[in-house]
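Feature request disguised as a bug report, sorry. It would help if multi-protein outputs had a clear separator. Right now it looks like this:
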Amino acid sequence: MSEIVRAPEGTIVIFVLGGPGSGKGTQCNKIVEDFGFVHLSAGDLLREEQRNPNSKDGDLINSYIKDGQIVPMEITVKLLSKKMRESKSNVFLIDGFPRKLDQAEYFGKNVVEPCLILFLDCDKEVMKQRLLKRGETSGRIDDNIETIEKRFKVFKEESLPVVEHYEKEEKVRKIPCNESVDEVYLKIRPIIEGLNK
C-alpha cells in the first residue's frame, strides 16, 4: 500500500462524526449530491481492504472490526490518503473518522487539518434500532446487538473526546438527528452552503 502523503494546499476536509447508526453515510450521500464533495467512509475503506485477497492488513482489520474495536490509525490514514490522491478532488467528506484523539492529531499533522466537523448527535436507542434494522439486510459482521453495544461504548469513551477537542477550536457544528433523513439534512445544508461565503 502506498504511503501517507500530505494533501495539497487548499484541500477542504469535513469530518462527519456521530455514534454508530447516527446517519453519517446517509447524510454524506445527500451532501455529495448537492455540493459535489468526494465522500470517503473510513469504515467502507476498511471493509474493502479487509475483502482484498492481496491485502497484508486484511486479517488484522477483520479481527478489529469483528470485535467492535478501532483499527490502528496508520492503516486507516493510509487508505484515506491514497483515496484522496486518486480522486483528483480538493473537497472531501470523511465519515467515521477520526474515532480517537490521536487519529485526529495524526491526520492533521500528516494529511490536512479539517475545516469543519459535523457532529450528528443522536439518542442511543434511535441508533440501536437503526443498526438492527440495517443488520437485517446489510450483511455486515458488526450489525449485531453484541457488537453494537461494544461500538457504543468505544464511541462514548474514545470518539466523544475528539468532538470535544474540535469544539475548543470552534470547528464543530452539532446537528440533532433523531428525526427523518430529510429533516436532518435541512439543518446540515445551510452549514455547507456557508462554507463558500
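(second protein starts here, but nothing in the output says so)
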Amino acid sequence: MRGFWRALFGRRARRRWIHLILGGALAMPYVLVGSVVIGPLTGVSDVFTSLTLQLGSFAVGLPLAAVTALFPLTRPISVAAVRALCGVPADALADGPPRSRAARGRTVAWFTLHLGFGGVLSGMTLALPPFAVTLMALPLFAGLRDSALALPEVLHHTWALALTPVAGAAMLVALAGCAAVAGALLARWAPVLLGPTPADRLAAAERRAADLAVRNRLARELHDSVGHALSAVTLQASAARRVLDHDPEFVREALAAIEDTTRRTVGELDAVLGVLREAGDPASTAPAPTLAADLDGLLSRTRAGGLRVQADAVALDPAALPPLVSREAYRIVQEVLSNALRHAGTSLTLRLARDGDDLLITAENPLPPHPPRTRPGGGHGLRGIADRARLLGGTTEAGPERGSWRVTVRLPLKASA
C-alpha cells in the first residue's frame, strides 16, 4: 500500500505532474490560436463555454505546436525540463540542437506529446479537484446542497449523499493515477525521442577526444619543459655546491645557467598554461622553443649541470626545418638531455642529421654501472618522446646497445603538412 501511494503522490510523481502542467502551460498559446480558427467556423463567439469547442481548439493548436518544435532550441529546452523533473538519467538524453532530419522529427513528436498530455492533464487538474472537494463537502453543509444548481435526482437520497465523499476522493485518486501514468509514459519515451542519435554520439566522442588531446598535450609540455628545467637546475645547483670553495668561475657559470633556465621555463610555463585560460583572457605571447631558436642554449644549460654533451649537426640547417618539426624535435632533444642528466651522469653524444626526407635524431650515453632507482611517478619521458614522434608520423627506438643506452628518433620533414 505504501508503494501504491508513493507511486501516486511521491516526490518523483509530483515532479512529473509539474512537468505535465508545464506542458499544459506551453499549450495554452496554441489553444488560443486554435480558438480563433474554431470560433468563426462554428459561429460561436466564445468557444470556451463548450467543452467540445475547447477540444476542437486544442486539436487545431497541436499541429501548430509541432511546426514550432522545428526551432533548434526546442530540444535543449525540452531536455533540460526532462532532466530536472522526470527522473531520466542525464546520459540518456542528447545535448544541443538536433543534427539530422530524424532527430528533428523525434523532437517534434516529443514536443507534441508533451503539450498534448500536458494540456489534457492540466485541464483535469483545474476542473476535477474543485468538483471533488464539493462532492466531499455536500453531506456536511446543507447550504452547499441548497446553493448547488441542478443536483442529480439521485443525490437527494440519503444513501447516495453519504457516498459523495467516497466519489470525490476516488476522483482525486484517479486524477493522481492519470498524472502518474502519463508522467511515466513520457519518462519512458524521453530517451527514445530526445536521446542521442549516432551523429550526437559521434560529436560527443569528438569533443571528448579533443579534450583528451588537450590534456595530453598539456601534460606532455609540462613534463618536457618544467621537468627538464627542474632536473637541470637541481644538478647545476648540486655541481656548484660541490666546487663552491675552489672553482668560483664554474659556480658563476652554473648560477648564470640556473638564472637563464628558470627565466625561460617561466615563459614556457606561461605558454603551456595558456591552454587552460578562458576565452576572454589574453593569450600568451611566449614563443614555443625550436631547434633553430634555442638548440645552442639548451646544450649550454645542460653542460652547466655537469653533463658533457658532444653534439653534431650533419648536413642540417635547423633554421630550414619546418616550424612544427623544429618545435617537436626541440622537445625530444630536451627530454633526451633531461633523461641523460638524471640517469647517465657523465657524457652524451647527440647527432642531428637529415636522412632523405627525414630528420634523424640519435642520442647515446654510456650505461651507469649502478642504474639509479626510478623516482615515484616517473617513467614518462620515453613515452612522451614516442608520442611526439608518432603524432608526426615518425618512429622511436630506445634501449641498451653494446654497453650504451641509445635513442633513435626519425621524424618526417613533411609532417608539418
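Even a blank line would do. Unrelated, but nice: Residues 2-196 form one domain.
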